[in-house]
Automatic annotation (TrEMBL):
Organism: Haloferax gibbonsii (strain ATCC 33959 / DSM 4427 / JCM 8863 / NBRC 102184 / NCIMB 2188 / Ma 2.38)
InterPro entries documented for this protein: Amicyanin/Pseudoazurin, BlueCu_1, BlueCu_1_BS, Cupredoxin, ET_Amicyanin, Halocyanin
SUPFAM superfamilies: Cupredoxins (SSF49503)
Region Disordered, residue ranges: 1-35
Protein name: Halocyanin-like protein
Cofactors: Cu cation
GO CC, any one term: periplasmic space
GO molecular function terms attached to this record: copper ion binding; electron transfer activity
Record's compositionally biased regions (Gly residues): 10-22
UniProt domain Blue (type 1) copper: residue ranges: 62-147
Residues passing through the membrane, by range: none
Length: 147
């Protein structure tokens, strides 16, 4: 099974820089997909960010959106099989977690700690929806598309 881990990270600063810069100026290339209404309540969904071809991708937890620090950024990311997604807590918006409810493949602990990280390596193609359980009703949801 794919690996996952979490830490109170102090060594992921370089990975964060790589993840943020990889989002770059690709807005023209972002595909707007509905995902069955998954993002209907999500204010910061701006299309699927194509982050394929990278070994590691970073998603901010507690990014600005949905009325405060209640968003994942990017909300939707496309990655290649074998990519490790690292969710990194910003420290904003209170206590968060990252939970794949549909398949139960991954679930982080609840924490508010800035710099905390949780990671999961996606091996199989598919769409993997996830939520922050305490803020799901505010629209704090995301998806990783593996193709």
């Amino acid at each position: 099974m794919a690996g996952c881990s979490s830490s109170s990270g102090d060594g992921s600063g370089g990975a964060d820089d790589g993840g943020d810069s990889s989002g770059g100026e690709d807005t023209a290339d972002r595909e707007m997909r509905d995902f069955g209404g998954w993002f209907d309540r999500t204010g910061n969904y701006d299309g699927v960010h194509d982050l394929t071809g990278q070994d590691t991708v970073t998603v901010a937890v507690g990014a600005d959106g949905n009325g405060g620090g209640y968003a994942f950024a990017p909300a939707a990311a496309e990655v290649s099989p074998g990519t490790t997604v690292v969710w990194e807590w910003t420290g904003n918006g209170g206590t968060h977690n990252v939970v794949n409810r549909e398949d139960g493949l991954f679930e982080s602990e609840l924490t508010v700690s800035e710099g905390h990280t949780f990671e999961y390596t996606f091996e199989e193609s598919g769409e993997y929806k996830y939520v922050c359980v305490p803020h799901e009703t505010l629209g704090m949801v995301g998806v990783v598309v593996v193709e």
